[in-house]
Amino acid sequence: MLFAGVRPGGHAFNPVVCAWAGAGSPRRAEAWLWKAMEGGLKPSKAALEKTLAAYASADGEGLDRMKRLMTSLGSWPKAWATAIISKPYAAAGDFGSVEQMLEELQAAGEAPDASCFKVLLMAYARGPRTLDARVEVCLERLWALKTLWTKQEEAEVLGDARRALGKERYDQLARKLGLRTPPRITGERHSRARVVGTWHEIHPAE
Predict the structure, then answer these.
(1) How far apart are CA 54 and CA 60, in angstroms?
(2) pLDDT(200) > 50
(3) pTM of this prediction?
């Protein structure tokens, strides 16, 4: 397009960014983000989201660059971005880091959305079983913000709550909130220990 003298617009750049991010090449996706900005274009949310997600599982330095880039665009902090960055910490049961990021989000005047509380609940499910009050508050806030999601997504969210609370406490809360979808607990989602940083199997129904 450039060779032909055609000035590419956002509809040209954004799919390229998304394609590289989806292919697991966040650095190339980031390079195209900068090319778009150099051309006076603002990347789409989808382009930023996919690049951020690609970096979140692979490159801490890349995440820092993405934060700076999004800050310059006026797109940081955002609830959806915080949820993406929090996921690796949640997967390791590091609920303290997730809580801190949500506090920073609120301090910046942004309210956490449902995706943030889903990630926090995921962190609690993999953390120590001494957080019942926090888990209950998180699930109640999540349920108050409940958006349209599939039955499978709902079952997985409730599975995290069930994993974090144990059967008796979860059943009490389910009756209180009127939760009817059976929680889904699988070895794949709940195989990590409650001690942060360990990976050995724990029985998913514990």
Answers:
(1) 11
(2) no
(3) 0.78
